[in-house]
Specification:
mainly alpha
Amino acid sequence: MFAAVVGLSIVAYWALPFDALARLGLPRFQGGIEVFFIAGAMMVLGAAWALVANAELLLKPLTALFTRLPGLQFMTRLASAYPLHHRFRTGLSIVMFSLVIFAMTVMAVITNAMQNNYTYHNFQIDPSTPEAETYYFKVAPGQDKRALALALGSAFLDNGLESTVLEDAIWSVRGPRILLSNVLLGVVGLTLLLGIAALAITGTRAVVERRQQIGMLRALGCRRRLIQGAFLSESFFVGCTGSVLGVILGLILSNNIFAVDFFEQFHTGLIFSVPWNELELIVGVALLASLLAALLPAWQAGRVTPSEALRV
């Protein structure tokens, strides 16, 4: 209970909008973008601490759900025994996974805001006789904008007309920023691959450490599929928990970033919006990768024979 109170208190403190801290009389950190990194790391650590310390509360509903399926119920108990016994190692794995998903969520929200920060407006010249310098042409549906712009420029070349497609002009301004954001998102994605590799290495090491336990289970009649399913369930638990924490906390921090108008100092006009399609893709890839990372340890665990394990 103490860990849950402390962990959730840390999450609540750093999840509050930064302006709300000042209104509540709490100390408000002054700084730049580094404050958001600190807030994200603290929220992930606090949530993982509270969750791992009270993991039984999550496992009870799963166990009750599988009570009518004896095989799945035993697999759930078997898969949760090792993570609950080694809570520190489980917590580090969840924190590592959550931080990567958290960073990808924040980058996806910022990139989505950059792609949607332009809207269409109807322009009207004042009712006077000014000398017009810019003309806007609305192209009919199905027409080639670039071909029409080239034709206009050629027809009025002697008059000094320079035709430009508005979409190309906008992309020339925001294109490099979106490219940079996508590159950063790709770098974070590579970090996710490193995290998956770390999960695979940790799972392989766990097989070596638990050879005697696996051998005893095999001697008691546990099938290979049951042992392999338990290892896959362990990895899926880490991946699922880390993904959920990363997405939720990432959206909270992203909302706080836009709430304090952090990007207004750059005159970008970005508006907070949730890229659900990108987040679904990120979570789906993360869960699939966590299962793929557990295939080798699960296969190794299934190959352990009772006699081989008991000789160690």
